[in-house]
Amino acid sequence: MDLGIRGKQGIVCGASQGLGLACARALAREGVNLTLIARSPEPLEAAVDSLRQLGAAKIRAVVGDITTDEGRDAVLGACPEPDILINNAGGPPPGDFRDWRQKEWFDAVNSNMYSAIDMIRRTLDGMAERGFGRIVNITSTAVKSPMPGLGLSNGARAGLSGWVAGVAREKVGDNVTINNLLPGLFATDRGRGYLAYRAAQEGVSADVYEQQFYASSPAGRMGDPDEFGATCAFLCSAMSGYMSGQNILLDGGVYQGTY
User: Fold this and answer.
1) Res 57 pLDDT > 80
2) CA atoms of 39 and 108, how far apart (whole Å)
3) What is the C-alpha separation between 114 and 109, in angstroms, rounded?
4) First CA to last CA across the chain, in angstroms?
């Protein structure tokens, strides 16, 4: 299927590894011109090298922190008129809410809520003026089913989803959509790290806990990042203009709710 986005300009945040890189791969295969931002230069350079083999017409790399004004200035300086925006930032560490004070909460809200909001603020109206825009926020399954130990992430990402629910309807008539992708456990460093954390909390080995997770998951496995990237690419496609303000859950069927 031709997604109709070849030649579009795309920004992918947190693109050097994990789900951000998977989204960049899927967009590169569709011929999107990509501007990638990540904090660490070496993994970012390796990501760019791998993506250049996949069909993207142009790939630019920006070393910076998307959770800062300076990082957002830098990536929008490199790509001032994006057609596609993938908001993504690393999640806060797990822990016990009793140990978190104002700084930990403010850092989590800045990384996983405000940074995406500010990128949308800076790009939404321009997309509407040009008549095309696709914004995808990588959040978490925790928005629908909070995960033990991830209270900082649960709160900040749910806050972003609530905000998006209001603004996503404003420009859909101008062919600009905003949707959230909610990953469950995927085969990334973040996913494996969470399983290791839960294993330590339960007092079992990481291998034992991982097998317990597989046994309890309807899919019987962790997600493949490329499955996530493919879903992201469809949400960015020319065919997805009638979908906005949605929370798309990819968790292998773990969430048991109807809605």
Assistant:
1) no
2) 17
3) 6
4) 29
Answer whether 33's CB lies under 8 Å from 56's CB: yes
Do 10 and 35 touch, CB atoms closer than 8 A? yes
Which residue ranges form the domains of the chain, and what is each CATH number? Answer: 9-186+224-250 (3.40.50.720)
DSSP 14-79: S-SSHHHHHHHHHHHHTT-EEEEEES-HHHHHHHHHHHTTTT-S-EEEEES-TTSHHHHHHHHHHS
CA 243 to chain centroid: 17
Over the stretch 104-127, which tens digit does the pLDDT of each residue have? 999 999 999 999 999 999 999 999
* pTM attached to this predicted model: 0.93
pLDDT in tens, 176-219: 999 999 999 998 888 888 888 888 888 888 888 888 888 889 99
What 3-state class would DSSP assign to 202? helix
